[in-house]
Design brief:
By secondary structure, this protein is α+β, with helices and mostly antiparallel strands.
Length: about 600
Amino acid sequence: MKTKQKITMLLSLILTILLISTGLSFAYFSANITGTETSTTIQASGGVMNINYDGGENINTPNIFPSNEPFATKNFTLTGKNTTNDNMNYHIILVIEENTFTNNALQYKLTSTNTDGNGTTAPSIIQSGIANGSQEIFLGDGTFESPVNNKDHSYILELFFPETGKSQNDDMNKTFKAYINIREGQYNFPGYNPEKGVNHPVLFTGMTPIKWDENNDEIETTESDSDWYDYDEKRWANAKSLDGSYWVWIPRYAYKIETCYHTSGEDCLSLTGKEAGDIDVKFLKGTTNITEDNTIIESAGYVAHEKDTSMHHFLHPVFQFDGEELGFWVAKFEPSVSYLNDPCRLEPSIENCNHDNLTIKLIPNVVSLRYIDVYNSSATSMNMKNKTETYGWLLNELDSHMMTNEEWGAMAYLTGSQYGADGEVWINNSSYYITGCAGSSVSASRFEGCQHQYNTSLGIKASTTHNIYGIYDISGGSRELVMGNFNNYIGVSGYTSFNLKSLSDQYINRYFTNKKDMLNGISMHYNSQKYGDAVYEVSSNAGRYNGSEFEGEITNSWYLDRSALLFTNGPWFLRGGLFHHTDMAGVFCFTDASGGAGLTGTFRPVLMPIKK
């Protein structure tokens, strides 16, 4: 009997080891840097640059697997020679033809050496993530100073597939193909406005730039108008689509939380004298991570309290939506139903409003659209891009979708930075759910009607900039459902389990925890390795709704905004708070929702330019 028990235990142990091994195994694949250069010599205006690639142009690396060591190394040297008075400028591009790995699964590092001390090399780059998709990554500019005779600039490019300590099976059988391209001249950052220091807004067909005069009267302008926007003066770029909907441009940026990282508003007040921390934003050039002052920008390797946004400037993750992005448009106001005779507008109800193809409009001084669940909010937002006759744009110009939790965070962090509101955004206290309204103070109590309209001296305090150029209704008004979900639970959102799990990660931020943490924790461990979403980074803890009331502290976000964990019956994020939540409402407010259609909930669409 004992022998049989030993055999059984041994077989169980072997089976356990096999299961563990299977769960941690990775398929081998090939990753190539393939060159398209037909010559290793560039004839520059000031002379000749010879390029020598150690070991040839190609790197073949079969059988790669997660490791902290590079899976490929490319050594190359540029040699400058001329006898004129013209300097020789060049820039280095990593051209990625194909990358099917997940965002930042692969990373790169550049080490530069000015071997002979002539001119300047492109700066070395610390390990940075590579976004999914085809793209060009600018690695830096270099210069040979004339006259120069056979002086060398040497570079080492290393590619990594780092071990994360977690399952990386999602990156099995993926493909990566790229090559290095050396080009003459200084690099021109496509999409970047050097005079304004931000990426220029990408206008779609039918969009009209707008601005306001000193009396907050609206003016239509042109894309070439130098006074259209100025982020240094907190005048964010605004435009209207053909139907009259208002949109606000969020340019590509990186950020650092300089004070009160993962700290409650109350504790922040005792530490700094303010109920919110300081966020430093660095606008980035084109689709690169290059700043005007050459600040080092991280895009991978975030670990809370070890390598996080309190220690480094990180690229905000929303700017890797489909590769590297220039920026995106956010609806300036909460949505309303477009057509005057629409049943949802005439008689708001779940029966009349909870549909997947409503035509919406983003304007002030109207009642916001409610009685719509997460599924239909998302579908309605995605269908916007197809309604070309209504909005004026072309189908191949943009992606439209419902705001994700991280996109809310991108809006919130720009609001809390040196480019946003001076202090807390004032509440929209309209109990009639009228868009663009403000109370008479930052946390005013409810008001029947619209106490102060969006373009008045007090109404502008309810925008993200405390002037008319910002985004409205992000504190109070209707509560806003965003695409952020817990453990793939569907609640009463209208999704099926299959449809939710099949939804691309571009359109939803997923949060996971195990059953033990879910039952025991009034904690945020499931979120500690997320960043950019204005949750863990700007709060110290969160309460939990037990079905009848909240357990634990629920005002632990900056500005004492509400902070409540998601859970089984409330698996969807709600942001901003409601018109009567007074000091608990705000841009850093987050709480749970079932995802269903109801009286108080709405959503917000965003537009992402499609690269052509």
